[in-house]
Amino acid sequence: MIDIDPESLPEGDEKVRAMRSMFDAIAPRYDLVNRVMTFRMDVGWRRKTVRRLRLGPGSLVLDLACGTGDLCRELKAYDLVAIGADLSFGMLAAGTTGAPLVQSDILRLPMPDASVDGATCGFALRNLVELEPFFAELARVVRPGGRIALLEVAEPPNPVLRWVHGVYFGKIVPLIGGLLSDPTAYRYLPKSVAYLPDPTELLTMVQSAGFTDATRTLFSGGVSQLLLASRDDPAW
Questions:
Q1: By Cβ atoms counted within 10 A, which residue in 151, 155, 212, 226 is the most buried?
Q2: By three-state DSSP, how is residue 45 classified?
Q3: Fold of 12-231
Q4: Antiparallel, parallel or unpaired: β 60-64 and 116-122
Q5: How many other CB atoms are found less than 10 A from the CB of residue 29?
Q6: Which residue from 119, 62, 70, 75 is spatially nearest to 95, judged by alpha carbons?
Q7: DSSP 3-state assignment of 236?
Q8: DSSP codes, 129-141
Q9: pLDDT in tens, 168-215
């Protein structure tokens, strides 16, 4: 059983320890639970994420909080070169991608400045201790003119869909997760949305870190969101 209280959201170093422990524990069935609870829509969301990066073949892309490598596999399918980084060794050990993987705190990446053409991140923003240092680290490692694509959960803008999604995400997802994996982790999952700032603030954070053309797109009626932006290029 995971040592995390889903009713009390951790902060700071406690959150780092809790996230590492949680993802280590759920790694063996993480992909299965994702497919079941999203009705495989997560596969299409990742495909759209990579497609909308709009990077040419052979571009080097850093996938942050890569988990078992779903986005790394999708990047490879588009002839992009992927490197994955994740805090959880359990996730990396359960990986099924041929991409090189590194265990790392993604707020302190072992990468040189301006060393990658792009970066992706799937469903991890709400699990970070702080978002502004994360965006600053993205700005450091992505070359000028490079691209980022950040996939995350969201709440539908339509009131009826938002209510249905709230019931499903808050009641049904924990049941599915409890049956297939660890119940504590999937009771925490719906609560973790509270970590996310509102969309306007999120886009402002991205732009303030040194990215232009920041946009937010909703998928599947608004149950997930994609943030896209380009690294500022002084030559422009």
A1: 151
A2: helix
A3: Rossmann fold (3.40.50)
A4: parallel
A5: 15
A6: 70
A7: coil
A8: S-SHHHHHHHHHH
A9: 999 999 999 999 999 999 999 889 999 999 999 999 999 999 999 999
On the 0-12 / 13-18 / 19+ scale of CB atoms within 10 A, 236 is exposed
Instruction: Say if residues 134 and 150 touch (Cβ distance below 8 Å).
Output: no
φ/ψ region of 18 (left if φ > 0, alpha if ψ in -120 to 50, else beta) reads: alpha
pTM above 0.85, yes or no: yes
Q: 89 is written with which tokens?
A: 């060794």
Instruction: Give helix 12-26 / helix 183-191 axis angle, nearest 10°.
Output: 130
Cα–Cα distance measured from residue 27 to residue 214, given in angstroms and rounded to the nearest whole number: 32
CA angle 197, 3, 135 (to 5 degrees): 30
pLDDT digit string, tens, across residues 46-63: 999 999 999 999 999 999
- The DSSP code sequence of 167-208 is HIIIIIHHHHHHHHS-HHHHHHHHHGGGGSPPHHHHHHHHHH
Q: Dihedrals φ, ψ of 211, to 5°?
A: -120, 145
CA distance 63 to 60: 10
- The residues spanned by each domain of the chain are 12-231
> 150 is written with which tokens?
């950040």
